[in-house]
Amino acid sequence: MIQIDPVDLTAQLIRCPSVTPNEAGAIKLLEDVLSQHGFHCTRISRGGVENLFARWGSSNKGPSFAFNGHTDVVPVGELGKWTFDPFGAEIENGFMYGRGAVDMKSAVAAFVAAAVDFVNETPPEGSVVITVTGDEEGDADHGTVAILDWMSEQGERIDHCLVGEPTCPDRLGEMIKVGRRGSMTAMIYAIGVQGHSAYPHRAKNP
Q1: What's the rounded Cα separation, in Å, for the pair 57 and 66?
Q2: How many CA atoms lie within 13 A of 102 on its CB side?
Q3: Which residue, among 64, 68, 59, 76, has the nearest Cα to 20 in the 3D structure?
Q4: Averaged pLDDT for residues 58-83
């Protein structure tokens, strides 16, 4: 089985000028790569944003482990201030330069390559899921939210999910953040009588 070179895949992704919400070929590239290696891919389009849900294996058998990432990037700003083409994926002194080189096309390429190797070399009893959004750097109304809505409608599930956002300050692997733990909204009512601190006997502190 031909392995995927994550460096080459990173370069291909960087060369897609996928400034939010433009897909610019990045989602299509991942869809093609994953489909060729046995992943069942579904494009989820909403609000002008393209997203990808790819599953290897059955959702009804064994545990399901997912990777989540995004291929959209922020605008390049003033192009004349760039030393390298922001969509050129040029390599100098062992570093690749371009929009998304760190956040987070390299991570997407790395876990796509790792997932393909894993399911080909040691096929799991469960399933491996890859979800990629094109709306992380924008309003994020039609990215992960759209994927989750689609999953709910289709009865798709995952047990655990790893997000490849860059979190390590200095060296690879030194930090893992636990996030996306949900949210809570509460209405709190405090009963009392307002007053002035000079006349505390006239007030009732809530």
Answers
A1: 12
A2: 9
A3: 76
A4: 90
Q: One of 23, 50, 72, 135 is an active-site residue; which one?
A: 72
Q: Which of 31, 136, 137, 156 is catalytic?
A: 136
pLDDT category at 101 given cuts 50, 70, 90 is very high
Q: Is the pLDDT of residue 49 over 70?
A: yes
Distance CA 103, CA 100 (A): 5
Phi-psi region of 133 (alpha: psi -120 to 50; beta: other; left: phi over 0): beta
The reply to whether 72 belongs to the active site is yes
pLDDT in tens, 79-93: 999 999 999 999 999
Q: What is the largest CA-CA distance in the chain?
A: 82
Structure tokens at 167: 């979190």
